[in-house]
Amino acid sequence: MSKATVSFFWFRRDLRLEDNIGLFHALKSDFQVIPLFIFDEAILDSLPKDDARVGFIYETLSKINSELNQTESSLLIKKGKPRQVWQGLLEEFDIKEVFFNKDYEPYAIERDESICQLLEAHQCITFSFKDQVIFEEKEITKADGLPYTVYTPYKNKWLEKYDQENPIREYDTSQLFSNFYKSNFDFPSLGQIGFVESSIKVQAYELDNIDNYQETRDFPAVDSTSYLSPHLRFGTVSIRKMVNFAAKTNAVFLSELIWREFFMQILYHFPKVVTQNFKSAYDGIQWRNNEEDFKRWCTGNTGYPMVDAGMRQLNETGYMHNRVRMVVASFLCKHLMIQWQWGEAYFAEKLLDYDLSANVGNWQWAAGTGCDAAPYFRVFNPEIQLKKFDEKGIYVRKWISEFDLGYGEPMVDHAFARDRAIATYKAGILK
After folding, report:
1. Beta-bridge partners for 125
2. Membrane-spanning residues where (predicted)?
């Protein structure tokens, strides 16, 4: 039996049919397109079987497949190691072209280089596109071509370049769906992939409150955040659409989207930040790394209401308000003197919007070890933060049921912890 001659579009962090650059160009190719998603065992094997993010990916793929069914096509789902999956597909199909959108994380870069070498060895042409950012790793640089390591000048250059292209083009794929390969591939159950449904769910994003974002964003009880970050992480919404919206609506909200790209380009240019301090001068800090203290932090039992409410919200929902994230991270690194890598790993396990570059970037900011970091002598006072941003205790009461029943004493005195942190940092910073 002769093989079908086709192109492939490989979904990864771009789980949508609309305004998807790689998919747009695939559907304009000379061959019918098979849409593919690979559940990567190298990633899945380390996750709990009820991981909510896998469930969200599965639900999203199921919706995409239903849309494709309306065009008499379907989504091809595979599970395995990507290189082995592609080897099997090359045996099954006559693949002329493969289209995908770029991913800038170290593992993804290595994976894609390997897959492209395999495909090109079989006379298959590969095409990659910028889709998850407005400006990728080498588009916003200093005059000498070096990357920015401080946010504000990066942001200014980013805005200058955006203004030259505003609005960024969005890509309409809807008129091209007839070029999908006609198929009815079996769509596996979540159980067949090796997972079960989680009680934690990704919420729909909400943009109605963005007009006064700068006035409400720091108050967790108001709950006026957009819930957009998981959708950007998995590409269920187009960054072009969101940035064009933000540029017309709210400058502070746009600035948050630029922070996302700043951390992405830092990770690309300085991949050591995944496990090491950006500022190597901080390598001499003597962390306490007390496992019992870390457990109390993880479970939200530190005696500081804002810290505990944040951790309990994270454990129960996979979300944590951004202001609270700063307080929680500062507390771990400065009050408990536990190195940021411990907190980063815990957030990576729990956050629905976990994104390597942002997670590492923000943790190193809190620890003072990163680029454009908070100074090491800045130690957030959790009690003052509570008074400023949750004065009536609405947020903490939501997540701490025993708050009004004689809440426990703080596990460490703030003044003592602050002095200890500053002294430890001073002694440990390498000259």
Report:
1. 97
2. none
pTM of the model as a whole: 0.95
Q: Which residues contact 165 (CB under 8 A, 6 or more apart)?
A: none
Instruction: Single out the residue of 76, 149, 82 nearest to residue 109, CA to CA.
Output: 82
Q: Model confidence at 250, in pLDDT bands (50, 70, 90)?
A: very high
Q: Map residue 222 onto helix, strand or coil.
A: coil
Query: What average pLDDT does the segment 166-191 reach?
Result: 95
Q: Are 289 and 329 in contact (CB under 8 A)?
A: no
- pLDDT tens for residues 181-212? 999 999 999 999 999 999 999 999 999 888 88
Residues 82, 111: contact at Cβ < 8 Å? yes
Using alpha carbons, list the distances in angstroms from residue 306 to 96, 260, 291, 361: 56, 25, 21, 22
Q: How far apart are CA 319 and CA 231, in angstroms?
A: 13
From CA 207, how far away is CA 392, in angstroms rounded? 26
Q: Which residue has the tokens 């933060």?
A: 385
The pLDDT confidence band at residue 41, using thresholds 50, 70 and 90, is: very high
In the chain, the domains with their CATH numbers are 1-132 (3.40.50.620), 133-168+206-269 (1.25.40.80), 274-428 (1.10.579.10)
Going by C-alpha positions, the residue among 406, 408, 382 that lies closest to residue 395 is: 382
Backbone angles phi, psi at 275, to 5 degrees: -125, -15
C-alpha to C-alpha distances, 359 to 73, 116, 308, 314, nearest whole angstrom: 37, 28, 20, 14
Q: Can you say how many angstroms the Cα of residue 247 is from the centroid of all Cα atoms in its chain?
A: 21
Sheet holding 5-11, edge to edge: 76-80, 33-40, 5-11, 94-101, 125-129
| Residue listed under structure tokens 């449904």 | 197
* Over residues 143-167, mean pLDDT: 94
Tell me how many degrees the CA angle 269-270-272 measures, rounded to the nearest 5: 150
C-alpha pair distances (Å), 163 with each of 138, 148, 155: 18, 19, 12
| Cis peptide upstream of residue 188 (ω within 30 degrees of 0) | no
Tell me 331's DSSP state.
Answer: I
